[in-house]
Amino acid sequence: MFDKLFLKFGDNQFYNAIKITFTAIVAFFIFYSSADFTAAFTVTLGALLCAPIDISSNFKHKIIGLLLVSFLIPIISFSLTYTYPYFYIFAPLFCVLVFLSAFISLFGHRANLLSFTLLLTISLSFIHHDKPEILLTNCFYLLLGGLFYTLISIVFYFIKPNRYINLEVAECIEITGEYLELRSKLWIENADREKINRQMLEKQVRINELHEHIREYLVYNKARTLNSNNNRKLLVALSSLVDILELAMANTFNHKEFIEFFKDDDSILAEYKTLAHSFSVTLKSLAFHIKTNKKHHSIGNLANDFKKLKLRINDYVKNQNISIYDENAVNVNNLLFYADKQIEKIKGLERVYKERVNADELRGKYRDLEKFFTPEHYRLKTFLDHLNFKSSTFRYALRITLTMFVGLIVGNIFNFENAYWILLTIVVIMRPGYGLTKQRSTHRVIGTIIGGILGISALILIDSNIALSVLAIISMLLGYWFSGIDYKVGVTFVTFYVILIYGLLTDNAETQLIYRILDTVVGALLAFLATRFVWPTWELNSMNIHLENSLKAIKLYIIEVKYYYIKKGEPSTSYKLARKNAFIEVGNLMASFQRMIQEPKGKQVNRAELYELTVLNQTLVSSAASIGTYIQFHKTTEASKAFKLVMDYINNNLSQSLHNLDFDAEITSDIEEDFKISITELKAIRRQEVEKLDIDEASKIQKLEESQLIIDQLIWMSNLSEKIEKTTLKMK
């Protein structure tokens, strides 16, 4: 229990929350005056507004980003506050700034964070709109706050320059461990395998994101120079993590068949499940030690556990008088092969963090690293191409512009005490998609009410200002921490500390709570209604795009697997890129489906078929990966003509599926008859060829394993591709 809690306290969200809270407290107390706390409040606000843009990156990019946003904040605040009394100037300026701030989110992760910061700045520009005489002073304080945060960020960076990326790696190891833990649960006899597979897909999406973050860091920090032991560790760790995920995805087993096979001694499968669970425990332990900066020691001996299990399984096969050529015996050998290789990869990852990495271990690890990373390009053409209603970002920018303008008008008409809270709520809640906006609206209202009640209760029950201050600092830290983990809990703590601050600085905290709840409800309602009715973006459109991308990526990957089996040797860069893209596109498809099912039922057209296609795509890419992985770790025989024709048949089915969905794809009409002949050849001829070979028993077993796995996977992939084609035909 303590370890789990410590793992959460050691993650990047908590690290960033400490940085933000520390900056806010120091800034406030440096500029605090008992006579007027405006300066302290404004400097702190400037610092907090800069925080979202502070992400791990090249140090130069970090500084440029923080300095840029530090100057943009006071410029925007000055422009809006100065023109506020002149409606016909203010209104178009406000709308243009909101639109551009929202629209730049199309340029990727960093731009999305900058977009959020600028929208927050626009919302908060009206705090002192009724005091134009202090406008320049406030803008100066905002600039000072931004520069102060930049300074603190630089200090934190030099204290622990590798802290952020090491925590990213630790999180990747931890979630990979959770992924393997879910796989171990598949061996439970009555397990809900559909639910577990869905959870595994969700984990896979996050793992792919973390792989990309690590690649980005290595590319931007010129890891190819191998200029530090930490970079060397990161390179080997990334390679090991990719291999662990691929091995797991590539080795999917028919758990019911294995349960039936070992029915006379079900303790064997229980022991295998324990071993599979140990994979997860080992990775989580490693993640814990990285986060706590402690030397890692293995908590068990996976190799010994595997040897004992292998002996038990071999004895069981002999006692059951099962031939080594039996299909079940071959499947068991493939199961043991997976476990053996996974242990090898996990032990290799452990070794990275137990000792220094030698240069020899890096051979080939960093080759063509840049090709696996997708950089963000800020091009004018991209901007112009999205200036139309086909673009979801364009519709989102128009929608949030209109909604914020209406929110501002509503606040002024009804003379709300703090109308800018309506705008803040809209900015924080509104997302391009309906599902997430709806969810965040509910969570924000609930969190605001609970946090407000807790805050007022604390003010009534606690007389000590020191105790209230400590409570406010703790709740601020927890608020920023949980905002990235559980939004509802994060809003609860943020509201809690805001009410405590008001209670410490003014005498009307109860009134402020009522206004805050009212503003939050109005803002949430406006955001929800606008997302539902104003140029809405439904996930179904994106789902179709992700489905097309997924099918095309799998097609390319299957082609690469085909040529890899023909050529043998080390996997080529094009093979690895195709594999990476296939995994990512299938993950994107799953994430898109999860968003779609949060939308109104009327917008979930072909929901059953789309879910089936999502699962079929995931299973197909796993099957293709299993062939690729087998080729990588075994010396395989020459690819037969039948193998090539079956792979072509699978690809042709995917092309037909794309054609059914009205996407471009080349189809070969006369391939089906060749496929039937090829499958017959694969089934009937391969075993006879192997049994006639003049080789020792061990070599025969190995070739039978190859034959069994390759043939089974080809038949399975053929069936999957046929199901995909038939399902897309239903949607035509």
Automatic annotation (TrEMBL):
Keyword field: Cell membrane, Membrane, Transmembrane, Transmembrane helix
Highest taxon above the source species: Bacteria
Domain (Integral membrane protein YccS N-terminal) ranges: 72-317
The family this protein is said to belong to: Belongs to the YccS/YhfK family.
Descriptive protein name: Uncharacterized membrane protein YccC
Subcellular location: Cell membrane
Keyword Methyltransferase set for record: no
Lineage: Bacteria, Pseudomonadati, Bacteroidota, Flavobacteriia, Flavobacteriales
GO cellular component, one term: plasma membrane
Membrane topology: Multi-pass membrane protein
Transmembrane segments: 20-51, 63-80, 86-104, 140-159, 449-481, 487-505, 517-535
Main localisation: membrane
Domain Integral membrane bound transporter: 408-529
Organism listed in the record: Paenimyroides ummariense
Keyword Membrane: yes
Pfam family, one: FUSC-like
